[in-house]
Amino acid sequence: NWPFISAAIKDHLILSFASAFIILIVAIPAGILLTRPRAKRATPVVLALANIGQAFPAVGLLILAGILFGFGKPIAIFSFAAFGILPILRNTIVGLQEIDPFIIESALGMGMTPRQALRNIELPLAVPVILAGVRTTLILTVGIATLGVFVNGGGMGTLIIPGLKLNREVVLLTGGLLTVLVAFTMDWLARVAEELLRPRGI
User: Fold this and answer.
1) pTM assigned to the model
2) Three-state secondary structure along 178-200?
3) CA–CA distances in Å: residue 121 to residues 24, 37, 99, 115, 171
4) Average pLDDT by consecutive 10-residue portion of the chain (202 residues)?
5) Using N-to-C axis directions, what is the helix angle for 123-144 and 2-34, rounded to 10°?
6) Which of 25, 62, 148, 149 has its CA 20 to 30 A from that of 72?
7) Are 80 and 143 contacting, i.e. CB atoms less than 8 angstroms apart?
8) CB 175 within 8 A of CB 11
């Protein structure tokens, strides 16, 4: 039933990419902000909240969000984003904190403003660590996107869950193998992006 399978693949990609995009636009700026002197005190609190999001069972978080806010793709996407925000947020903070302070002081001593030092020195040096978090998050979102079926969000779960319930091994294996294929494809794309975006010499 190719139309049904192709629709499941499409939904799965939408869930994965949309939740990963939300995580990127939230976690990277938040990670940068939390490494600035004025906001450093809030870092433990924010990381603790992000840890709670990931420590909470993904199915429980998803169903709770569905009960409170309704069902459908948007709820699934935002639930997956809440679940997967920690790797990028933590890696952004760690990547920026690991930079030698003397390098930043030298840049400021040469006349750079803090923003210029962040853009030209800190972020390029932190890119490898940040991209490692992005890669982890992409694989994570592909895996948990199979749970979108519980809130009528679609995805590969529409194959895997019925395959389990009805003991139909062909349907189950089809959903599982397609999920693995998507995960490997995302991992390969993330690896290519990591090589292209990594500054030369780092």
Assistant:
1) 0.81
2) HHHHHHHHHHHHHHHHHHHHCCC
3) 21, 17, 9, 10, 51
4) 84 88 90 85 81 71 78 85 85 88 85 86 87 86 84 83 81 86 84 76 56
5) 140
6) 25
7) no
8) no
